[in-house]
Design brief:
104 residues, alpha/beta, three-stranded parallel β-sheet
């Protein structure tokens, strides 16, 4: 989330409109060691990130399939929390999972 905050501030300082910022996020791919938690997955879905690749599953707080599937725009969780602004994103996990697990 820190990286996304840095991008958002940089793009706003450059003078990009909200639509231009949304367009830029829709072209971004995020690579992380551990599956995003439920809060981060919901935020990534709201900003409209294109895709996320992660190593190991987050068995306690996972928001991309382990506990909840907040990356899916049709997720029941989005409907139940009233998150109609969610766009969803492509998500792929388990990439070098054993190595990623040793880092988490």
């Amino acid at each position: 989330m820190e990286a996304l905050d840095v991008l958002l501030v940089r793009w706003q300082r450059t003078g990009f409109s909200a639509a231009e910022v949304a367009e830029k996020f829709s072209a971004c791919t995020l690579y992380v060691t551990c599956e995003p938690c439920k809060m981060c997955a919901a935020a990534l879905s709201i900003i409209g990130l294109k895709e996320v690749y992660y190593g190991c599953a987050n068995d306690k707080f996972g928001g991309c399939g382990s506990i909840m599937s907040l990356h899916s725009s049709s997720s029941e969780a989005h409907i139940s929390i009233g998150n109609s602004g969610s766009k969803g994103f492509k998500c792929c996990g388990g990439i070098t999972a054993s190595e990623a697990n040793s880092l988490c």
